Amino acid sequence: MKSVFCKQEKPIKGRILSVLVLLVSIAFLFYTEESILSRLVFFFFSLIVFGYSVSYKINKDFNNQKLFSVFGFPVLKTKLNLDFPDYISVFSASFSLDNEWGTVSAIGTKERHSKIVVRFFTKNKNFTLYKTERYEKALKVAHELSELLEVEIYDTIKK
């Protein structure tokens, strides 16, 4: 194994909004009399928003990358500067988001999620590589990273 991909999951509000925008663009494509070019541009833009994702690619040589993809195809790659971890931790965390601005506030102003998190720890610094709602997925990613980098895993959920 030369690398491990940690695909970030979209928040539920992001999924809802991207589906709504896609549905509106499909309706706009077929049921309006605007120019075909503007309808197609809006449709393709909504497809990009719908299929957009971010992943971290952790390599054996620790030359890591952050990948921006559309439907799984990398569009942009940037260097991901991380310190080599002393250990990897898998634990449960609660996240809170405030959405008191713009159109997102119409769906709700507070959002609270309980997630299973995989983090790199280096001395007193940490970096969140992966968040999910399923313990098995988080543990699988942590084991792949541990095997790739030969670093110990601390699983605080089983304790």
Tell me what the structure shows.
With 159 residues, the protein is α+β, with helices and mostly antiparallel strands. Helices cover 32% and strands 40% of the residues. The strands form two sheets. Strands 1-2-3-4 form a four-stranded antiparallel sheet. A four-stranded mixed sheet has the order 7-6-5-8, covered by helices on one side. Strand 6 and strand 7 (125-132) form a beta hairpin. The relative contact order is 0.17.
Provide key terms for this protein.
159 residues; 32% helix; four-stranded antiparallel β-sheet; alpha+beta
What's the number of helices? Answer: 3
The average pLDDT value, as a whole number, equals 87
Strand proportion, as a percent range, falls in 35-45%
Q: What percentage of residues falls in helices of 4 or more residues?
A: 25-40%
Q: Strand order within the widest sheet?
A: 1-2-3-4
Biggest sheet layout? 4 strands, antiparallel
Q: Tell me the structural class.
A: alpha+beta
Q: Give start-end ranges of low-pLDDT stretches.
A: none
Radius of gyration: 19 Å
| Number of beta-strand segments | 8
Q: Please report the distance between the alpha carbons of the first and last residues.
A: 29 Å
Shape: elongated
